[in-house]
Amino acid sequence: MTPISQTITLETGTGALPARLYGSRPAKGFAPLVFHLHGGAFTSGNLEYGAYISGILAAAGAVVVSADYPLACEHPFPFALTALFAAVTDVYRRRAALAGRGAPLYLAGEESGGNLAAGLAMMARDQRSPPIAGQILVSPMLDPSLATASIRRADAGSCGCKWADGWQTYLGSPEKAAHPYAAPLASSRLGALPPALVVSAEDCPMCDESRRYADALASAGVPTCVHILPGPTEWPDSISCPAPKPAAWSSAMRDLFRDFFVSTRPASRSGRLKADPAVL
């Protein structure tokens, strides 16, 4: 069961961005505030695509702002990333009203949304604002070369594959693949990024690039936790297509998210982190 949500809008400087708010501001203290981005291979998806993961994040104790970003079909890189950076800055300004004074801000996303979350973490580091407490990357799309073993096992990566076409549409031109904000796995400068939780599944095409990015972050000194769920999960498609009842991995995801919030929570006695078992 997905928590009741409400629609809000976020300011980007070039127009309002629709978003859904999951969870509620606690009566006392604060909750983790998560800026979440759905999947869809950069070229599809909407707020419904992000409902399931947003629900699990909320079940782990967070207030979640799930944003509907501009798709690459009409707006290739870096349009969506630029708009989302303005949007997450708006979320940070409103954090007291959304999740309580002092609420730590997290970035989260699955598949293409995981790519955007990773890119936003780099932008926030480089611009030194807004402060990001952590990044949660669920089977992120990070490598436009599509040459990993897990991609090959999925019979993906060739022309006509939705991820290959999604990358081509998102990048617009081959040289964009060298930009670290567009393809984070190729970045040679990963130090000073916020702590990361990287989650994938054994049967997910993005499993190998998820592992590689987690290893690269850890090698750069970034506190990183990687967790690979056993299959079958039918990721990443099943993430964006909520089942009538929770999948077997939902409770494991909730626990991973909750533990990550606890491990990265700022020192304060006023914060609260309480999962709602009725959500899952």
From TrEMBL:
GO terms for molecular function: hydrolase activity. Residues 34-231 form the Alpha/beta hydrolase fold-3 domain. Keywords: Hydrolase. It comes from the Bacteria. InterPro entries: AB_hydrolase_3 (IPR013094), AB_hydrolase_fold (IPR029058), GDXG_lipolytic_enzyme (IPR050300), Lipase_GDXG_HIS_AS (IPR002168). PANTHER family: AB HYDROLASE SUPERFAMILY PROTEIN C4A8.06C, ALPHA_BETA HYDROLASE FOLD-3 DOMAIN-CONTAINING PROTEIN-RELATED. Belongs to the 'GDXG' lipolytic enzyme family. This is Esterase.
